[in-house]
# Entry
Amino acid sequence: YGPTDSGESTALQTDGDAKATGETFTSSVYVDNGDGFGNSPVSGAFGQADIDLSIVETPDGSSGASLNDTSLTTNSNGFADFEFTLGDGVGTYIVNASTSNGGTNITYEATAGQVSQLNVTQVKDGLATGTDSNTGTDTDVAVFRVRTEDSGGNIAPADVDFGTVFTGGSASVVELYED
# Structure
């Protein structure tokens, strides 16, 4: 048995584990061109290792994920940098980095972005008539569903002051709950 180039690639995600949908990660991949016995590097082996990148998994229904490059060549230290932009769906994205001797998967997590819209809809048959216990007057109570979304339509957590959302007339918020 003689020494052989291992050519194994290792993912080095350099700027965080999760970002909002549509944001970009800057990542590095390292290729170890050692001799297969744990000795690295083989003389002159670093540099010029070819790496192919591909997006192999995205959240269901997601679109817009992209790589700035799909073919890389390592520098003299065995590293190659690239950028991966998340799509519009929340969840897990996986990019595969491969060499002629194998590859590795790089996992990215997308979270909901900043709230860009507030959707308020009345719940069907959600109108009830009652009597105000303080004044004894008849009242109508309507049930609404409020959903905060990011620009991709993903549910985005938000602190909403419902006192300012529902203003005008004699409307007031009676009860809030999250589902």
